[in-house]
């Protein structure tokens, strides 16, 4: 009498246990790998955001022109560096950090127009935003907006005059020219993880066009 080949109940249960353990380990490794990838992507996005903020702040500071902007009456009364919600600058829930006039507006067609444009840095609904108007006199039209960093807090900007940092730029009388430009601008904020971020850009202010 021969014995038929096969597995006993104990052997089958042992095999199932091994497969279950292997499956649990594999699932844990997959979840860990996915979490690690998500953290790496988030870190890369934060680094890219910081680099964009640094680059744009340096470009704006390097191309700054201390030129007053035209107000609604058409006179050059608006301060060159402004933190007020001037005409066309304040909309919605936002806090304006600074607005300025700068050179460098692209003109690939060589059209007969100014290279100046108006830029504002602001906080809108918890995000750091840069707004750009092609008209340097801050028109009523909607600006081109770009969100530079999301979920920021404790955002502050300071201006360096001499050796002292000021929370606001020096402003002369309305329309006054020759107002001194700060030596540098410093932007600080907390990112979405609560970590302190600081950017400092040296200002090389150009003379306003005649």
Describe the fold and architecture.
The chain has 210 residues and is of the alpha+beta class. It has one domain (49-202): Roll (Pili subunits). The chain has one helix and eleven strands; from the N terminus they run αβββββββββββ. It has one helix at 9-62, and strands at residues 64-65, 69-70, 76-78, 94-102, 117-124, 127-133, 144-149, 153-161, 164-166, 184-190, 196-202. The protein has a five-stranded antiparallel β-sheet with strand order 1-4-5-6-7, covered by helices on one side. A hairpin with a 5-residue loop joins strand 2 and strand 3 (76-78). The protein is elongated and about 100 Å long. Residues 85-92 have low confidence and may be disordered.
Topology:
Elements: H1 9-62, E1 64-65, E2 69-70, E3 76-78, E4 94-102, E5 117-124, E6 127-133, E7 144-149, E8 153-161, E9 164-166, E10 184-190, E11 196-202
Antiparallel strand pairs: 1-4, 2-3, 4-5, 5-6, 6-7, 8-9, 8-10, 10-11
Distance between the termini: 114 Å
- Cα gyration radius (Å): 28 Å
Please report the number of helical segments.
1
Largest sheet: 5 strands, antiparallel
Strand content: 25-35%
- Element-by-element helix/strand order: HEEEEEEEEEEE
How helical, in percent, are the residues? 25-40%
| CATH architecture level-2 label | Roll
pLDDT < 50 runs, ≥5 residues? 85-92
> What name does CATH use for the topology?
Pili subunits
* Overall pLDDT metric: 81
Please tally the β strands and state the result: 11
In the CATH scheme, the class would be: Alpha Beta
CATH superfamily: GSPII I/J protein-like
